[in-house]
Design goal:
Strand order of the largest sheet: 5-4-17-16-18-19-20
Bound molecules: adenosine-5'-monophosphate-propyl ester
Radius of gyration: 24 Å
Number of strands: 32
Largest sheet: 7 strands, mixed
């Protein structure tokens, strides 16, 4: 029997042989000539010359053998509806949308922004883009108009696809009016907007000549057959914006062939999902987990995927387990915050349902604390696998790989480096390898394996500088996470090395929130830090210096200003980024060279020692933070 260790070693010792073997899991229209071209480090090209298509691998390939099997099951507890699409039906819908897009002038290589709620049409749109080689960029529905506009201007799309609205906790969330606002703000708005109306927004404005009604247009393309555009393995498949150190989100660009192979391989080796089985991933299509493990991964594997619109506690905290029972879910993937939310409810609700079909539950996106890991593993009586990865990697970096070897799980640890990743724990100062139990930067020795980001959209230099520029003496990929390895080789992730925070599994940049706070006309300057939160993992907390302090003289004035600042963040970025509180101070702690001491502020906010303060310009600033926190 192959052990995990042998498998991992072989993936690095014989990279090309290893991945050539894994590449057999997908369909190649034209075989690749070279497995890996690493002639221009750190840019890695996988399966060079090979031609394939993500949509072909997700749909066409399965239609003949499993055409009548369910491919997509949409369950909405928001609008109390379930819709099911077999592989044949999904294939047909995707063909229609692909034809609709083509007749709107979308060509291979054009960008298409998808700003949609969790409805089947969003999946059709994603797969239709892949079919014709258009580059999709899905923007999470929780982002506000200004954020959407920034992404539009970076991607310069030919088309935008949206819906009238979504629903959250039974409340309608308007999408179309937000899109209209974003298109007004954008310098490069698309010519056309394809609009799916769910009947949620009766007074939805329509712009004649620009907005195209999905349902009407679909009628004209009912019998459409659109051939897959064969793409060279390294052509871009999608852009997904993610937060980093600066206020400007980065467009993570992914290829076609490497991504298809990485997903097919991970479905088999990590998630153990077999064709004909069912996968339920509770993320959103706007995040990388949604891309890889709601849409592409399970379909490439020939599974049934469940697309869920709703929250984990409505109508009650048993809804996910009811879905597992009713749809005989075999593989489930969720995030630690959701489990912490469920943990607050009576565990008896879990035992109401027959979870016999479930093989294991995978959790990722944020640190999984040991008590939550233990609780859910005991409550389910199934293996619960913590695994660690990023938007940039597209698939797991650290995980147990049960399809190769069922290694024992350690609570609180995402286990070991996944095959293909030459993972290193490097000391920040000199890139030397850290020893056992020593906290260091989690880094990947390039070339990055298939599936990982290939560059930053439109900015190769930013890709190299950002991700490979952490150490002066070594060109390695930094994950921007701290980690530690114990004596048994298990890894533990200890949080980010940069200014990225993780709120309920949502990745946000504190700089982006600072910029949003600063959009309030009375804010002169601010610092945002992430503070530990028992439910959401982290929450943003803002400290702001005002231009006109007269409103701070009364408690009501302060409260009103705090509310206005929060609303500004909602408008600029979205409610997910709203700070837990806004504290007003007259100066921020800075070094003598003018850098804000965010780490010290964060430490104080979490009740820890603020650390080395020898470079502080004015210690009174820190005193103000202390006092603000006390109040
Ligand atoms: O800090 C790490 C944290 O989430 C970041 C990546 O977030 P995102 O790009 O949204 O991708 C999520 C893909 C699952 C990482 O840099 N993170 C992710 N998984 C874990 C984690 N932190 C601790 N444990 C994890 N299992």
């Amino acid at each position: 029997m192959t052990t995990y260790r042998d498998f991992h070693r072989r993936s690095l010792d014989d990279r090309e042989g290893f991945w050539a073997e894994e590449a057999k899991l997908v369909h190649w229209h034209r075989p690749f000539g070279k497995v890996l071209d690493y002639s221009r480090p750190p840019f890695a090209k996988w399966f060079v010359g090979g031609e394939t298509n993500l949509c072909y691998n997700a749909l066409d390939r399965h239609v003949a053998r499993r055409g009548d099997q369910d491919a997509l099951v949409w369950i909405s507890t928001e609008v109390d509806q379930t819709r099911t699409f077999t592989y044949k039906e999904l294939f047909q819908e995707v063909n229609r949308v692909a034809a609709m897009m083509q007749s709107l002038g979308v060509k291979t290589g054009d960008r298409v922004i998808i700003y949609m709620p969790m409805i089947p049409e969003a999946a059709f749109a994603i797969l239709a883009c892949a079919r014709i080689g258009a580059i999709h960029s899905v923007v999470f529905g929780g982002f506000a108009a200004a954020s959407l506009a920034a992404r539009i201007d970076d991607a310069k799309p030919a088309l935008m696809i949206t819906a009238d609205g979504g629903s959250r906790m039974g409340k309608v969330v308007l999408y179309k009016s937000l899109v209209d606002e974003a298109l007004k703000l954008a310098k490069y708005p698309p010519r056309k907007v394809l609009l799916f109306s769910r009947g949620l927004d009766k007074s939805m404005p329509v712009v004649p000549g620009r907005d195209v009604d999905w349902s009407e247009f679909r009628q004209r393309h009912l019998d459409a057959k659109v051939y897959c555009v064969w793409l060279e393995s390294n052509q871009p498949s999608y852009i997904l914006y993610t937060s980093g150190t600066t206020g400007q989100p980065k467009g993570v660009q992914r290829d076609v062939g490497g991504y298809a192979v990485a997903l097919a391989s991970s479905m088999k080796r990590i998630f153990c999902g077999e064709a004909g089985e069912t996968m339920f991933t509770t993320s959103d299509i706007g995040w990388v987990v949604g891309h890889s493990y709601i849409i592409y991964g399970p379909l490439i594997a020939g599974m049934t995927t469940i697309l869920y619109e709703g929250v984990p506690v409505r109508p009650d905290a048993g809804i996910w387990w009811k879905i597992v029972q009713d749809h005989k879910v075999n593989v489930m993937f969720s995030a630690p915050t959701a489990i912490r939310v469920l943990k607050k409810h009576d565990p008896a609700i879990l035992r109401k349902y027959d979870l016999g079909s479930l093989k294991h539950l995978f959790l990722a996106g944020e640190p999984l604390d040991e008590p939550t890991h233990r609780w859910i593993a005991e409550a389910l009586g199934k293996p619960v696998i913590d695994h660690y990865w990023q938007t940039e990697s597209g698939w797991p970096i650290l995980s147990s790989v049960p399809g190769v070897e069922k290694t024992p799980v350690k609570f609180g640890s995402p286990s070991f480096p996944v095959y293909g990743y030459d993972l290193k724990l490097l000391r920040e100062a000199d890139a030397a390898e850290a020893g056992t139990d020593e906290k260091a930067v989690v880094a990947i020795e390039p070339p990055l394996p298939p599936g990982c980001m290939t560059t930053v959209w439109g900015d190769d230099e930013r890709f190299v500088k950002t991700y490979f520029g952490t150490f002066r003496n070594k060109q390695v990929y930094s994950t921007f996470d701290w980690g530690i390895r114990d004596k048994d080789g298990y890894y533990f992730i200890l949080g980010r090395t940069d200014d990225v925070i993780n709120v309920a599994g949502h990745r946000l940049g504190t700089r982006e929130i600072e910029e949003a706070v600063s959009m309030h006309s009375n804010i002169a300057e601010c610092a945002v830090v992430g503070v530990a939160d028992s439910l959401k993992g982290q929450m943003p907390l803002a400290f702001a210096v005002v231009k006109d302090p007269s409103r701070l003289n009364s408690a009501e004035g302060r409260k009103a200003l705090e509310k206005e600042v929060m609303e500004t963040v909602d408008r600029q970025l979205g409610a997910i980024a709203r700070p837990k509180a806004v504290h007003f101070v007259s100066l921020l702690p800075k070094t003598r060279s003018g850098k804000t001491l965010r780490r010290s502020i964060q430490a104080l906010a979490e009740g820890r020692d603020p650390g080395d303060l020898t470079t502080i310009e004015d210690p009174a600033a820190l005193e103000q933070i202390r006092n603000a926190l006390k109040s």
